[in-house]
């Protein structure tokens, strides 16, 4: 709908930004929301301001990442059936036009980032090394999805640093790890970039925490980031199976090619690590029962994906990959409810004292 309603001259720009395929933006955004909700004070709802700010950042940085990816991969894309009609590959956009668009996207992204505290700005700026390096990973490693996951979930750390005190950054680390593993198992839009992608897509897990907390000194955002990395490894590996035939022909690498027929065993490992990391995140963040109920739903979703996916059916891989946007929403709802039902430590301390004196 976005593409068909836009003027013809604008459509190649929208296409290279993947605005017609919002799934990538959701996968980048959800780890940020998890971190923001985890860093929210007990008994309160997450800040709509931060949710909106990180939403804008997710759209802009996902778009910028796609432009960077297409600039690096133009020659590869010409040889792959699924990507040969991308604007740079088919010639509807020139490299000069793409660079101009990228400049505008990065400049606007910087303006959004500068709305946060300086620690969060530093954390967010550090992600650019992963954003730029992620498309290169497929040329040198079979684990590009790992880098993708590390990048996609970086917002976990940024959001936490913005919202929490400096001594609370460690709390979000399990979530970051879990989301990276999940990302790695599915996202084929970034087919050969799984390792790089895992690191990249999950940067929001760090950014969200740092934005709310002002630092990354708690373990929770770090564990959250690592958990998110496992999530990325899971869904991006699934997605990578769509292009494995073309990838072999053109000589690019991915976890789909590395794992082959053993893919489901690896997916099970990623899913287990992601759930473990998310569970540890909840413990470090003093979460309540709604969080763990959502985690049970997340575990069931992982099990369903791994059990039913047909890695030799591209359409089924796409369906399973796309379903991860709902997993992100379920976990976010669980964190919001769990945080809202939490009692802060000062209130609990007062209750304990009153019980002692009574």
Number of domains: 1
Number of strands: 0
What is the string of SSEs from the N terminus onward?
HHHHHHHHHHHHHHHHHHHHHH
Q: Radius of gyration over alpha carbons?
A: 20 Å
Instruction: State the low-pLDDT regions, or none.
Output: 187-196
Major β-sheet annotation: none
N-end to C-end Cα span: 65 Å
CATH architecture name: Orthogonal Bundle
> What is the percent of helical residues?
over 70%
Helix- and strand-based class?
mainly alpha
The CATH homologous superfamily is named UbiA prenyltransferase
C-alpha geometry: globular
Query: Could you please say which CATH topology applies here?
Result: Tetracycline Repressor, domain 2
Quickly name the level 1 CATH class. Mainly Alpha
Mean pLDDT: 84
């Amino acid at each position: 709908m976005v593409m068909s309603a836009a003027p013809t001259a604008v459509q190649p720009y929208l296409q290279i930004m993947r605005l017609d395929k919002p799934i990538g933006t959701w996968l980048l955004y959800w780890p940020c929301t998890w971190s923001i909700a985890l860093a929210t004070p007990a008994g309160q709802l997450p800040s709509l301001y931060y949710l909106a700010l990180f939403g804008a950042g997710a759209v802009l940085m996902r778009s910028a990442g796609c432009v960077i990816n297409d600039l690096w991969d133009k020659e590869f894309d010409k040889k792959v059936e699924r990507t040969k009609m991308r604007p740079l590959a088919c010639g509807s956009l020139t490299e000069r036009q793409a660079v101009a668009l990228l400049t505008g996207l990065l400049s606007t992204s910087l303006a959004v980032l500068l709305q946060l505290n300086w620690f969060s700005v530093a954390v967010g700026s550090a992600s650019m090394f992963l954003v730029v390096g992620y498309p290169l990973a497929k040329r040198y490693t079979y684990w590009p999805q790992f880098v993708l996951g590390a990048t996609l979930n970086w917002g976990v750390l940024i959001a936490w640093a913005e919202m929490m005190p400096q001594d609370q950054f460690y709390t979000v680390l399990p979530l970051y790890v879990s989301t990276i593993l999940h990302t790695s198992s599915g996202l084929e839009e970034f087919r050969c970039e799984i390792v790089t992608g895992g690191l990249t897509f999950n940067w929001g897990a760090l950014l969200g925490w740092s934005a709310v907390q002002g630092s990354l000194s708690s373990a929770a955002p770090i564990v959250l980031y690592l958990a998110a990395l496992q999530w990325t490894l899971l869904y991006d590996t699934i997605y990578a199976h769509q292009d494995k035939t073309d990838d072999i022909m053109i000589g690019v690498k991915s976890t789909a090619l590395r794992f082959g027929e053993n893919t489901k065993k690896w997916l099970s490992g990623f899913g287990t690590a992601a759930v473990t990391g998310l569970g540890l995140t909840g413990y470090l963040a003093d979460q309540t029962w709604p969080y763990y109920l959502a985690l049970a739903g997340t575990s069931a979703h992982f099990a369903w994906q791994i059990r039913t996916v047909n890695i030799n059916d591209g359409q089924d891989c796409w369906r399973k990959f796309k379903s991860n946007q709902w997993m992100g929403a379920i976990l976010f709802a669980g964190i919001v409810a769990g945080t809202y039902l939490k009692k802060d430590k000062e209130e609990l301390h007062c209750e304990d004292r009153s019980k002692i004196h009574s």
